[in-house]
Amino acid sequence: MELLNRKSIKERYTTHDWQYRAYESFESKMSDKEKRFPCIPATQGFALDQFLYGFCNRFETTPTAKQLVTLLQAYTARYETLGDYTSLIIFIDDQQQNLNVLDYEKLFWSLLQEVVKINKHTWPAHIPIDPLDHTWEFHFNGVGYFVFCATPAHKNRQSRHFPHLMLAITPRIILEKFHDHSPAALIKEKIRKRLCNYDLISPHPELKWYGQTDNLEAKQYFLRDDQTSFSGCPFADSFKKS
Questions:
Q1: Start-to-end C-alpha separation, the chain
Q2: What angle, 0 to 180 degrees and rounded to 10, lies between the N-to-C axes of helices 18-31 and 40-47?
Q3: Which of 20, 85, 165, 235 could form a disulfide linkage to 94, CB 3.0–4.6 angstroms apart?
Q4: 3-class secondary-structure state, position 140
């Protein structure tokens, strides 16, 4: 398992490989000038070629989690050298049939749960272990990350649709830098406007900003295809079982 940039992907894979096709789908989504992807930091990071990519050939919770740990370890060690808008993009050839959004929700949280168990890195003392605390966020080797999940099952929420199970993992500091250099109110307005134009459904009520007392990061990592959300978070079990 290794991290790749866009050039190495196109050198390593051919148009017959699912990895090549997955990247092309992502490239099309990020670079569409008529239907602009809502997340402005993501489109800027892609345009500046600051993303790194990883591929998992199939979805099996523990083997896939081990691959993700390897990729995250490599990314965490070097993300600070990659630019102000970097993210780690993971494509998973899940090869699942007839899965709905709730099925993918369970797979997503089982994957993050397993990553925590396998990695066994000390959880930061200043970050609560309860995802229902508004200051909680996913941490890996001392770095706070925002984890975005997209699936083939999402239809109404096109911003969360992708031909494969996909994770976009962004260091918290990258998002903070972006907001520090951009008026927060203006960015919120632009993103919401893009979401309304991009999705077939209004923005999810859980879409808020980190640090707000009514914001829960866990509920934003995986947005359902309607306006509902889970009442708890299975990630909390990671600390009970690890």
A1: 24
A2: 120
A3: 165
A4: strand
